[in-house]
Amino acid sequence: MQTPQNKLYCTAQIREAERYAIDELGIPGRELMRRAGYALFEQIRQHWPEQQIVTVFCGAGNNGGDGYVVAKLALQANYQVSVYALTDPNVLPGDALSAYQDFLQAGGSVSDFEAGQSKLQGVIVDALFGIGLSRDVGEVYTLAIAAINASSCPVVAVDVPSGLHAYTGSVLGCAVKADLTVTFIGLKCGLYTGEAAEYCGEIVCSTLDIEDAVLAAMPPFALLLDKIELPRRARIAHKGHFGHVLLVGGNLGYTGAIRLAGEAALRSGAGLVSIATRAAHSSLINIGRPELMCHGVECGETLQALLDKASVVVIGPGLGQDDWAREMFNTVIASDKPCVLDADALNLLAEQSTRRENWVLTPHPGEAARLLGCNTRQISSDRFAALTDMQNQYGGTCLLKGAGTLISNGETVYVGTTGNPGMASGGMGDVLSGLIGGLLAQGLSLDEATRLGVYVHGEAADSLALEFGERGLLAGDLPERIRKLLN
User: Fold this and answer.
1) How far, in Å, CA of 397 to CA of 340, rounded?
2) Of 22, 74, 132, 366, whose CB neighbour count within 10 A is largest?
């Protein structure tokens, strides 16, 4: 058993690695199945040592074969074993059929699953579908999955929770909610983004002892996000060394968004933070935070004077889409300043489809759908493809928010590992945009600032949720915690 690393692989890569192990390294498929079964059973014994009962659900492919291997091992260890087959095991493919026959020879028996009648107890092993599932789950399997999810038993998924797309992380009609997922050969992309967080539970990876020979030479499809450490500041540093962030937004009725973004930029460590907002409330935004330099700006000419002094621009929080917003947006886009676009700045960008390399785009799925001229269902069905399309069309560094936030600079894809449901409240995106802008101002690259910003943004929320709980977590709670984490 190997500790999961930060490398993620798509389904095609895992299949190629398995093929290489069988055809080039001479490891029989049956041996790989045996190793998978042993890895699964070992995890069951480690996680639930008091349990002596297992209920195994077996499907029609090699995933079902893994289930039969586990069932045999449990039987030999004097567990009480129940196996439910969702398809006739006598028509299983070669290695899976052999695993089924071995289970029978060891004294096991198999029953057909009957919804409402079959008894579920002990640890449930989900061996219904593997990484090959690409269509909605059929009716019979839907009933089995519903029964698994309705039980109070701990659930371990074999390779991937059945019903979850192993590449996109989307649910194909319904999916098993596992407490533990034991995945094989390498970590799959779909276990870490989209809807996966609701279904995978703890994720453990067994390489089946083929990683060094196969995956080491295979470039990963994506990387799990790690924290970037900032260097120690020089003892002679002054505010001019850490940049000047200009934030543009806060239209009438939306002062909170730009204030949150401004405070996040300050707490990130930016040397100076200015806000360009509507004149009607420019004197109100920095009440309680006098370090924010607020300017009433009603035309592009006035904004240009502020742009000339800034090193980085963040535009979008509370911007709106009226004539004032459009003038502010067009003035910023016409400049050559590196910038972060969020919220309504993204909606305005969708109307003109401009491309440049020195910006960061920060859409949630709805904004991404407008940028790409599609709907949110299409975005959610394949988040990796949506991210790639967005980066190809607009350039720069793009991120796609949501559980398992995705980041791409056109070369490498990163998958976020921090954050929690407590962040489902207004203003969180404003804090993130200000944080990224502040990190850019301090000299980080677009890619580095975005990666660190996303990581620390989620890390701050996680630490607050651990301390106080997820419900009631506010965007305004994050900046002070962000400061602590960046130090």
Assistant:
1) 10
2) 74
Residue 234 exposed, middle or buried by CB count within 10 Å (0-12, 13-18, 19+): exposed
Structural domains for the chain:
7-219 (3.40.50.10260), 239-486 (3.40.1190.20)
Q: Please choose, from the candidates 90, 84, 61, 86, the residue with its C-alpha nearest in 3D space to the C-alpha of residue 71.
A: 84
φ and ψ of 27, to 5 deg:
-90, 115
The one-letter code for the residue type at 23 is D
For the annotated binding site for K(+), the residues are 63, 126, 162
pLDDT digit string, tens, across residues 44-99 = 999 999 999 999 999 999 999 999 999 999 999 999 999 999 999 999 989 999 99
pLDDT tens digit string along 25-44?
A: 899 999 999 999 999 999 99
Find tokens 């939306």 and name the residue: 254
Q: Are 124 and 48 in contact (CB under 8 A)?
A: no
Those residues with Cβ within 8 angstroms of residue 271's Cβ, 6 or more apart along the chain or in another chain = 238, 239, 240, 241, 242, 243, 244, 441, 442
Annotated binding site: 62-66, 126, 130-136, 141, 159, 162, 257, 318, 364, 401-405, 429-430
Residue numbers belonging to the annotated binding site for (6S)-NADPHX: 62-66, 130-136, 141, 159, 257, 318, 364, 430
- 443-470: string of b/e by CB count within 10 Å (b at 16+)? ebebbbbbbbbbbbbbbbbbbbbeeeeb
pTM, 2 dp? 0.95
Binding residues for AMP: 401-405, 429
As a whole number of Å, the end-to-end CA separation of the chain is 35
